[in-house]
Amino acid sequence: QVHERLLFWSEQEDCSRPPELGPWTCRLCGVHNLPLSSICSGCDVSRFSFCYNRVPTQERFIACLEALNLAGPVKLEELHRRLCTVRDGDPPSVAEIQTTLKRLMLEKEDHKGGDKYGAMVGRDAKRRFFVTDLGKQVLLNRPKKPNRNNHDHVRK
């Protein structure tokens, strides 16, 4: 009898799963879902959708999230400068941006399961604002704006 034994070098990575991707309980139907899943197995809602996370849908919130996502961690003054160049119409004041950031940083707790959700913006040790993992997922899963140049919707 011949027994073959193979030895492999392995590297262990120090990584941890973000809490947003762990096991979760749907706030709408109460079903317990698997880690890394994004769609509830009970009611088919996406855990990163605007309605599930109660994301404010006004343009100022979306513009702030997008600007932070593109810029990376930035201080309030830099974010204000970026939003003034991007936004059409009246540029937002620093006070308006602070109010918007407070709302996006607000963390809520689910009454049913005790899960925390809603903090789409965070602040680092250098007092710079950044988009959290949840905020990035929400941006990726947001409804797309209708394209006015798209003529698929033209009546015949």
Features:
single chain, alpha+beta, two-stranded antiparallel sheet, 5 helices, extended, disordered C terminus
Structural description of this entry:
With 156 residues, this protein is an alpha+beta fold. It contains five helices and six strands. The chain has helices at 50-53, 59-71, 76-86, 94-105, 133-140, and strands at 24-25, 32-33, 108-109, 116-117, 121-123, 129-131. The strands form three sheets. It has a two-stranded antiparallel sheet with strand order 1-2. Strands 3-4 form a two-stranded antiparallel ribbon. A two-stranded antiparallel sheet has the order 5-6. A hairpin with a 6-residue loop joins strand 1 (24-25) and strand 2. Helix 2 packs across helix 3. The N and C termini lie far apart (78 Å).
Main sheet record: 2 strands, antiparallel
Fraction of residues in helix: 25-40%
Shape: extended
Cα(first) to Cα(last) distance is 78 Å
Poorly predicted sequence stretches spanning 5 or more consecutive residues: 147-156
Mean pLDDT, to the nearest integer, reads 78
Helix count equals: 5
Structural class: alpha+beta
- The number of strands is 6
Helix-strand topology string: EEHHHHEEEEH
Strand content: 5-15%
Please list the strands of the largest sheet in the order they lie side by side: 1-2
Please compute the radius of gyration using only Cα atoms: 21 Å
Classify the oligomer.
single chain
